[in-house]
Amino acid sequence: MDVVSAKAADEILERIFQPALKPSALDQAEETLRHPKRLVYAAMSNRNYYWRGHIQKFILDSGMVPVSPFMLFDYYLLHTVPKTVVREAMNNLLARCDEVWVFGRISLGVKVQVGIAKRLNKPIRYFDISELPVAVIPISEETAQEEIRD
């Protein structure tokens, strides 16, 4: 019969109660490659520009990776690049995303993005953001409202 040494027990206890280490960059890279998160295109009217940070946080908190045109291109790169160039870049990003989430009222631009997503058979989700910064509320496509144009 083997005798359990106190040293072996101490080593086991040390490993159990050792403070958890932060994952290294290598550990994080390996996790990303093994379990990539879904990319979500955040579609929103430019009237909701000021909510962009809250929307990014909402998508991250949902376990997804946000792709937000207003975070990447600001507001059409402060109008230093033609809108058509920025829209083409946005549509290319949309095509590479796994899902499209629509936040707030639907503008003409968002309606076009939804049309692209539908033609590419991407899942689309709709959210009411009238309660931000407190809440983002999932809604159906049927209850999503179009933006009133001035």
Summarize it:
The chain has 150 residues and is an alpha/beta fold. It contains 7 helices and 5 strands.
How would you explain this protein's 3D organization?
The protein is of the alpha/beta class. Helix content is 44%, strand content 15%. The protein has 7 helices and 5 strands; from the N terminus they run ααβαβαααβαββ. The chain has helices spanning 6-17, 25-34, 52-61, 69-72, 76-79, 83-96, 108-119; strands spanning 39-44, 65-67, 99-103, 124-128, 137-139. It has a 5-stranded mixed beta sheet, with helices on both faces. Helix 3 links the parallel strand 1 and strand 2 (65-67). The radius of gyration is 23 Å and the shape is elongated. The protein starts with 5 loop residues before the first helix and ends in an 11-residue tail after the last strand.
Supply the key terms:
150 residues, alpha/beta, 5-stranded mixed β-sheet, 5 strands, 44% helix, elongated
* Mean pLDDT over the residues: 90
Give, in spatial order, the strands making up the sheet with the most strands.
2-1-3-4-5
Order of helices and strands: HHEHEHHHEHEE
Oligomer: single chain
Ends: how far apart? 87 Å
Structural class: alpha/beta
Biggest sheet descriptor: 5 strands, mixed
Number of strands: 5
Spans of at least 5 consecutive residues with low confidence: none
**Helix amount:** 40-55%
Which overall shape is indicated by the principal axes computed on the Cα atoms? elongated
What radius of gyration results from the CA coordinates?
23 Å
How much of the polypeptide forms β-strand, as a percent range?
5-15%
Helix count equals 7
